[in-house]
Design a protein that fits this description.
The protein is of the alpha+beta class. 15% of the residues lie in helices and 21% in strands.
Length: 117
């Protein structure tokens, strides 16, 4: 991944099937269907997410790489979507992140506001 992360394998596949599988158009880096409908495929179901969570023996997943209007929870709070367009200026409330505290997930902004997801 590190060796090739700055290369465009979405539009330019290689002769290496491993690189194409991981970093190509159908690979996990470009997978969007947990976040939303993508490439004509519907958003994944609750059962599909639960299958992934069960496989990795985790309670929830945090994803990025698909820009959303705001940080949000989906799938009964088991998926947290964190990729948003951040503000260009400091202290505007538009730059946001998440905070994990006491087994709870919060959305926080650059004004110090904190909202439980």
């Amino acid at each position: 991944m590190r060796k090739h992360i700055d290369q465009d394998f979405y539009f330019n596949s290689t002769g290496d099937p491993m690189i194409n599988m991981v970093m190509g158009k159908s690979g996990p880096i470009w997978y969007r269907n947990l976040a939303r409908e993508h490439d004509g495929r519907p958003k994944d179901s609750q059962e599909q997410l639960e299958s992934v969570l069960n496989y990795y023996e985790v309670d929830r997943m945090i994803i990025g790489h698909t820009v959303m209007p705001d940080i949000c929870a989906d799938y009964q709070g088991k998926l947290i979507k964190i990729d948003i367009l951040h503000g260009q200026s400091k202290n505007t409330g538009y730059t946001k992140g998440i905070l994990a505290e006491n087994n709870q997930i919060y959305k926080v902004d650059d004004l110090g506001n904190k909202e439980r997801l």
